[in-house]
Amino acid sequence: MSEEIAPHTHFQYADATHQAETAVAGMWLFLASEVLFFGGLLVAWMFCRHWQTAGFDAGARETILWIGTVNLAILLTSSFVYSTGLAFVQGGYNRGLARCCVLTMTLGTLFLVLKIYEWHIDLSEHLFPAGPFKLTNGDAGGARLFWSFYFIGTFLHAAHMLVGVGLVAWIAHQARAGAFSRFWYTPVEVVGLYWSFVDIVWIILYPMIYLVGRT
What we know:
Layout: H1 2-5, H2 16-51, H3 53-60, H4 65-90, H5 94-124, H6 140-176, H7 186-211
């Protein structure tokens, strides 16, 4: 076992296990900082909704529910597919991991395409908070604030998703090159943690954007 994982061990680590644990812990630390980042946005979102409930509800009713729902299903499926790839590499099957990564990338790209399409519709209907705005009644101020949070939240999430697609593409390339084995697949785990985090962020954003206040 040690002979197969030793080439991946860098000089600053006591052994391969220490290196793997450090890499995973490092990703958890990074994700903790991301939780603080997105958490601040979500807390501000909820605070403003409390004081502008009618306006936020009016803004939420203008969102495109079917696109948000389809994208939710896409991301949940992508996490399942990537987890399947992790199971493949734990059995030493690099080709299975590579195929799962390609499918995960495809689903992530489809998510981004649908999101860009949704943004296009939003802008064409004058729902961007700056400039002429679709809603002009007494709730317009709160609705503008809702759409400000909407564009900030969805843009940040899409940026993280784009990074995730790139990371999964790198994992697919490494898997095709036979870089992983059942004894060493730490990068696969680390990227999986990141991808799962991006999915969880959307699971939280989905009801705040499309469901709360819609009825």
